[in-house]
Amino acid sequence: MSDPRLACFDLDNTLIDRDGAFLAWAEWWVDRCGLGDDAVAWLLAHDNGGFTPRAELFAGLRERFGLTASVEELVDAYGHEHPSFTWVEQSVLDGLASLRTAGWRVAVVTNGGVVQQSWKLEHTKIAGAVDYCCISQAAGVRKPDRRIFEIVADHTSATLDDGWMVGDHPSYDVAGGKNAGLNTIRIGDKHPVDTPVADHHFASVLDAFPTIVAG
After folding, report:
1. What is the structure's pLDDT at 1?
2. Phi and psi dihedrals of 202, rounded to 5?
3. Which helix (H) or strand (E) holds 16?
4. How many CB atoms lie within 10 A of CB 22?
5. Which one in 44, 49, 66, 159 has a CA-CA gap of 20 to 30 Å to 21?
């Protein structure tokens, strides 16, 4: 009997609206600190979809608005606060369940830190809806490196043959999937880079589930 096939999903801005959660956190945090709307605008302008290192982001914020807390304190607080502002649509959880019912092994493959990504996965209940969650900091390797997908395949007893990688970032998700020999689906248009080109490109991850099942 052959090993089951693998369907991998990115977390931020794929399964969940990471940018929407960041905005909700920023508005809450700025209000709590008694700062003006310009602080929210500054955070959104410098966040870069989460790709700006958090120490760099909060060092700039501290300097711009004269905050007294240290950069380390600000980063640590953010790491514990931001996940509570994330959410997942029930239709996404249902889609993940549909793949598992169809015999697929389903995994989250996310670049990021263990603390914040783990909290997001638990808070949204995605952790319990998939077979395995692979966080790059814990794995010691990041997308687009093929090895992170090999780790996932090993942990799920699945094969990479005829598998899928679904994510929003061409340079990490699409490139990583191709490096691992997976079929690829790009979600959304949040990143200006448009290569490599995915096999499919959808506005919503909800369109990925029937495509994978049909494939």
Report:
1. 62
2. -125, 155
3. none
4. 20
5. 66
